Amino acid sequence: MIDVRELQKDFETMATALTRKGVEQEILDNLKELAQDAKAKRQEMENVTAEQNKLSKEFGRYKKEGLDIAPLQASINELKSKKQSLEDEVRVLEEKLTSIALGVPNLPDANVPDGADEEENVVLETIGEKPNFSFEPKEHWDLDNGWLDFERGVKLAKSRFSAIKGQGARLERALINYMLDFNRQRGFEEWYVPFMANSNTLQGTGQLPKFEDDLFKIEGEDLYLIPTAEVSLTNLYNDEILPAEELPLMLTSYTPCFRKEAGSAGRDTRGLIRQHQFDKVEMVAITKQEESDEVFEKMVSCASDLLTSLGLAHQKVQLCTGDLGFSAATTIDLEVWLPGQNKYREISSISNTREFQARRAKIRYKDGKKNILAHTLNGSSLAVGRTLLAIMENYQQEDGTVAIPEVLKKYM
To answer: Does the pLDDT at position 264 exceed 70?
Structure first.
């Protein structure tokens, strides 16, 4: 969540940053009015409290000197009643302000390029060599190897679900194990976490309240199927104060992910690119504020090196403000080369959310006597289904079979 106190202190600076993120003027105007009203009402309450305290100190002197305390007591009681009324007004205003602020995205870092959408993202680096084929490469769903069964996936659930069989299923499992081992060797501690989360957990990382329509809700329960392990891993430390010397915490986990893909009608309707259920290995870091940039670079390198180890050409892309996610202050996407589609497609997204999620989830660390909001970071390492299809397209043979990358053979 954005810093409401900073919003009240310097609204114009924050409004300028939020405008870069695409926040509408009507929302900014509403925030400004509420911020000013809450600040003014709190100041009025503090003035009344100060006056009440002043008269309360006089009360003892009046009694000691035998003065008439009745008028003073009446004034104190009046101020007490007024203070209570003002406290109620401040609470209502600040609750309204917080409610709106929960739906406002994070501020983009100053060095994030301005842009309207993904077309204005900036390619930072291209890594690896694209494969050469002596034949016309096919898209993964056209390969005649029997791995993917979309029709039976739809029969079992609905559209955007798929079933994978045989060597394809074994490769999916091999990728999960390989990714977890790779991340563990890079210093990430492996976790196994619930695949469901309550509303407080989802609010902590920013999925609620704004993106409820994209979540699968468990009927009759305060539970949702998780859209990413970022939710579970980050909130392991919800409402905790961590010793500074234990940071950074670097975590990794495999989970299935569940998303309604609200608003994506007509996009990537074929194949494994955009499914309601998909496997992912996630990285999360919780760091001291001054260390988060360094950890961010380590996470980008980890995911990039993982792709390189699989022999997959890819590029690093800096997202512009218009393509930046809700919680992210800065994001680098990794896009893998898909020869069947003849284009790069996103396979990992690594973000630094600064203190945005930590403020929502109350994740702090103790530095001396001060409690400081941590920085939280997250990134795919990697989206397993997209890695599977990338291997299918990049390692396809003319007869439709798929060669297995050398590093995965021992996992098969």
So the answer is: no
